[in-house]
Design brief:
The protein is mainly β. It contains five helices and 19 strands. The longest helix is centred in the middle third of the chain and has 9 residues.
Length: about 280
């Protein structure tokens, strides 16, 4: 079968940065080139910390319990994932004492998991409640099943790929990594903030040849409390979500009227993405 013809349109978008997060809710790693499959970027959210008592997937969306995960980092090393702790140790994720070390530091019995079980869920307080009551407060937390918009079994929140534009990040006035995107797209000068809202249903053609992926925008990305939290050396930034609550609350199917930044995408055609690739919106 002949490959699809690339649309002949002027590309005004460009990939400036790519990230993957080998362990859910830990800091990730920048990549210059990566294969994008139907289930997402290679080795993105391949592992997760699971609470042994509840069976819930641990995520900093529930800051009172799990915000310290954002002080850990994870990176791919060949076929292995290596975790580095804020106390200084670095170990392969499946090493014998990693679970015990994490359990002691996080104050709950946890284990590293590499396979997402059916019905895997997280606890997600509304960001408004966390902002109003504080990260240590006991606030109501909805139980949300993850990966509902993904064909894979990784620990993505919803869809296989998440992206955000420079227009949106610059409007909010914070670091893009607080939103934990896979792709950051540079937009032309004058592009309105939250332009991703208008891309739902449209396709993004990455690169100018046959090797690049084709992505389809499915939803604006609902935001939780995570962008407001400390990320490694970055301090708290409540405006990273407070601004969205005031200026970009969107009625997202399945989520309700929620603050959003960026968008979720599905992979129509797999391929290789590179930093610097032009992206054509069709």
């Amino acid at each position: 079968m002949a490959p699809p013809t690339w649309p002949r349109r002027r590309a005004e978008l460009q990939i400036t940065t790519m990230w993957r997060y080998p362990v859910k809710s830990m800091l990730g790693e920048q990549v210059d080139e990566v294969h994008v499959a139907p289930e997402g970027l290679a080795r993105d959210r391949a592992l997760a910390v699971v609470d042994s008592a509840t069976g819930m997937v641990a995520t900093a969306k529930h800051p009172r319990l799990w915000r310290d995960l954002l002080t850990y980092s994870a990176r791919s090393d060949g076929d292995h994932v290596r975790i580095t702790s804020p106390s200084g140790w670095t170990l392969d994720a499946p090493a014998r004492d990693v679970d015990a070390r994490l359990s002691k530091a996080l104050g709950r019995v946890v284990r590293i998991c590499s396979e997402r079980p059916d019905g895997a869920s997280v606890e997600r307080p509304a960001p408004e409640d966390v902002l109003a009551e504080g990260v240590d407060a006991r606030v109501p937390a909805a139980t949300v099943r993850i990966g509902q918009g993904s064909p894979g079994t990784t620990f993505v929140d919803y869809a296989p790929v998440h992206l955000i534009t420079t227009a949106t990040v610059e409007e909010v006035g914070t670091e893009h990594l607080r939103y934990r995107p896979n792709l950051v797209l540079r937009t032309p000068s004058g592009t309105p903030a939250y332009v991703e809202n208008d891309w739902v249903g449209r396709e993004l053609y990455v690169g100018d040849g046959q090797a690049g992926p084709v992505l389809r925008v499915t939803l604006p990305t609902p935001r939780c409390a995570v962008p407001t939290l400390e990320h490694g050396a970055l301090p708290r930034a409540v405006h990273a979500v407070r601004t969205l609550i005031a200026s970009n609350r969107v009625d997202v199917p399945g989520f309700g009227a929620v603050p959003c930044a960026g968008c979720y995408v599905e992979v129509v055609r797999p391929g290789v993405s590179r930093v610097g690739d032009e992206v054509t919106l069709r």
